Amino acid sequence: MFSALVAVLALVLLGATAAALAAPSGAAPGRSLAVSVPPEPTVVHPGETASIPIRVLNPGHQPVTATITGRQVRLLDDGVVRVGAGPDPAWQGRVGFTPSLVSLPAQGYADVRVNVEVPATLDPDLRFVGFLVSPVQTSPGQVQVINEIGSFVTLDVPGPRSTRLRAKLRLPGVTLGQEAAGRLQVHNVGRSAVRFWGENDTTAWPGSGTPRQQRFAKSLVPMGRSRSVRVVARPHWWVGFVTLQVRIVYPAATEAATREIALHKRVLVVDPRALVVLGGVLAAAVVMWMRRRRRRRRRLAARARRKGSHRQSPRTRASAPKVGVS
Predict the structure, then answer these.
(1) What is the C-alpha to C-alpha distance for residues 107 and 37, in angstroms, rounded to an integer?
(2) Rounded distance, CA 124 to CA 82, Å?
(3) All structural domains of the chain with their residue ranges
């Protein structure tokens, strides 16, 4: 029922208490928490009250008491989330938690409901309600490291909206390695938050067979932000061309229709082992060529000496004046 898709958003915030300093010897060990939220947005309508289930988990070996409070969230590039110091003014007085104080047993969890009063004038779009889970210090006389974790739930206000994505495939034309690896960058240039998905189908030459497929899970791109996804392609041999066919899909103005972005890239992949083998072959060829050249020079020199020894004929030697003492 609950997914850990946004469970650990890595929003572990060191508390602005003595926790921000190094704990002295004898201090209690730090506590860690996790949060699980629904993987899909909750559809809401303006003017109604929504109740969204979340789950707070305690993976530690000691019981923890924690409070849940509303906080402002800022969604940045590549899924980075920043939790503010106070509640979101857009949801001021409209968000509550049942319960807002939970007792978490060791390696246990607690189910909580996020109750949201949706404004009657809310425009169609994806909306985000942030919150912060903070452990409560229960052991007096000790300096404790208090770890807080922030997360958010997503609301989907249905209706027509302005969605537009722009994508770019960043890979070099030639790659030295066992595979071609790069980044698919998706930018939200529309006026609404968008969740996209897609796939990367790769083929290789020389070689044959079924194209390899890399699927992209649904990813959220807030308005004016970007998201990057790693793409890879591997040839069949140490040297070969790989062709990437990337397809991005996202909702159009309405959920009933979708838009697509198709990207194409061809990359030459050269495995370093192939260069080693090629270098060995070239070195052997050079050695053989030098040996053949030396042998040819020796044959030419021997031939030249033989010609020099037979250059004077016997008649010339007989008619040559004799020099002596009478």
Answers:
(1) 18
(2) 24
(3) 12-157, 165-273
Q: Where are the beta strands (DSSP E) in the chain?
A: 12-14, 34-36, 42-43, 49-58, 64-71, 73-75, 81-83, 95-98, 101-104, 108-117, 125-135, 147-157, 165-170, 174-176, 180-188, 194-205, 212-221, 226-233, 239-251, 258-270
Using alpha carbons, select from 94, 85, 81 the residue that is nearest to residue 134.
Answer: 85
Stated pTM of the model: 0.71
169, 181 contact by CB (below 8 A): no
The listed CATH number (2.40.50.140, 2.60.40.1710, 3.40.50.300, 2.40.170.20) that belongs to domain 165-273: 2.60.40.1710
b/e map 145-184, b = 16+ CB within 10 Å: bbbbbbbbbbbbbeeebebebebeeebeeebeeeebbbeb
81 closest CA partner among 8, 146, 164 = 8
Can you identify the CATH homologous superfamily of domain 12-157?
Immunoglobulins (2.60.40.10)
Residue burial 221-259, b: 16+ Cβ < 10 Å; e: rest: bbbebbbbbebebbbeebebbbbbbbebebbebeeeeee
Longest dimension (CA), the chain: 145
Per-residue pLDDT of the chain (326 residues; tens, 9 = 90+): 333 333 333 333 333 322 332 333 333 444 579 999 999 999 999 999 999 999 999 998 889 999 999 999 999 999 999 999 899 999 989 999 999 999 999 999 999 999 999 999 889 999 999 999 999 876 665 545 558 899 999 999 999 999 999 999 999 999 999 999 999 999 999 999 999 999 999 999 998 777 889 999 999 999 999 999 999 999 989 899 999 999 999 999 877 789 999 999 999 999 888 778 778 888 888 888 888 888 888 888 888 887 776 665 555 555 555 555 54
